[in-house]
Design brief:
By secondary structure, this protein is α+β, with helices and mostly antiparallel strands. The termini are far apart.
Length: 213
Amino acid sequence: MAEALGREVDETIETAQALRAVLGAPSERVQAKVIDRIDEGAARYIAASPFAALATRRADGGVDVTPRGDPPGFAKVLDSKTLALPERPGNRRADALLNLLEDPRLGLLFMIPGVTHTLRVSGEARLVRDAALGEAMAVNGRAPELIVLVRVERVLSHCSKAFVRSALWRPESWAERPDVPSLAELMAAHTEMGLEVAFLDAVIERDARERLY
């Protein structure tokens, strides 16, 4: 990392004590907001959320974060300690699912468009197939083949500052970004298989049209 800067950094923080010396301690209120279940307020937030970021740990110790999205309420609160997530059709890499088979611990960050505070949920998961639960989570008549059942261990709300700073939900701040590469461009560059961008664009468009559910 020092090579990237062309010099050594001023200081590397390596202990919790050193970190607290910089940041200070959280208030009693902030420390107390962590609960071990989905209460009524958290359930209402999850019911309104159409999107979550899912964090899992790979077998090699690395961490993956993948998106999960569907109509609001796609994640079903079965009881105060149990959450169900439908697994919709994807590219079949199944990174998160394979990770969970190795290490069932996960973290979820639920978001609601236009709402700047988020909800964090973490716990342990197992992959299941269940016809009745799948039918309850069907969209456009198609039930998920797999469901991630989460045994909830930690729930906490997260403040709005990151969303306020980034103006994420303010369309007037969204500048045109012609230099952002398309998914097809990224895939063509990263796979190094000599695939044409136009061909990949067509594949991606067909997949979105035919395999959304």
